Amino acid sequence: MTDPIAATSNYEVDLGNLMAYDPSHHVTAAASNRAELREACLQKATELAQAVADVLFALSPNEDRDGPIVRLPPPATRLPREKHLPKPKPPTKWEQFAKMKGITKHKKNKREWDEQTKSWKRTYGYDRVNDDRDIPIIEAKATDEPGVDPFAQRTEEKKKRVEKQEKNRLENLKRAAKVGALPSHIQLAAKALPITGIKADLPKKSRKEDLESVAGMASTATASGGKFDESYLVRNLQSILANIESFSLWLKEKELVAKRNSNMTKS
């Protein structure tokens, strides 16, 4: 195994980073002018680059069809990161409540036992356990109102739950925008907010309408750019019907012209 830091003459070379430095470097005298300082820096850089090249070409290469290949040792010098550390996201309303009440999150199983089909099914998603669409009969309760469709009622309740979840999500985004820790992957195009998440770059307050607008645009975004959405299909169908109607009028007009020409020929 090659030493990650190789010493050559007075320099130490870190081949993992292709870097060399002089641990005993010291300036004898201050440069009198800028040209002298530049010349000294170029001379030192040339010596360091030559030291890296000497150690690099001393490694044993492996033959490949594209030519000799040298495997570098792992880097030994830890370089500082370019970007600052990401800021922690502010806790949501539920996370604050769970922390106050001491509620811990448990990992849920991906599959559960379905008593109706006597088989293991997914907890969520397609073919999930206790799916409302798989229940053919719903038992009536004493509290049920007469004449109410239980299947439609379940659909309406699910719709309300989804709306409530969306409302809570927007509130969390609004709260995060106020403290300046909005997630970097969310860009509020309605107010041209930056995606850096820096508090200084954010406006003082984000309106609920702006958040709803951006959330609506994100929920309706598709890979086709909306080409195959329902609204596009409706407009396309209307255009087709208009073309058919104009084509029918053209056929009728053509028949009338042909009939008039036929009558003129007979007379």
What does this structure look like?
Residues 66-91 are annotated as: Disordered. It comes from Eleusine coracana subsp. coracana. The chain is mainly alpha-helical and 267 residues long. Among the domains are: 5-69, no CATH class; 175-221, no CATH class; 224-267. It is 43% helix and 9% strand. It has 5 helices and 7 strands; from the N terminus they run E-E-E-H-E-E-H-E-E-H-H-H. It has helices at 34-58, 93-101, 150-179, 208-220, 230-266, and strands at 5-8, 11-14, 19-21, 62-64, 67-69, 111-114, 119-122. The chain has a 3-stranded antiparallel beta sheet, covered by helices on one side. The chain has a two-stranded antiparallel ribbon with strand order 4-5. Strands 6-7 form a two-stranded antiparallel ribbon. Helix 3 packs across helix 4. The protein is extended. Residues 187-202 have low confidence and may be disordered.
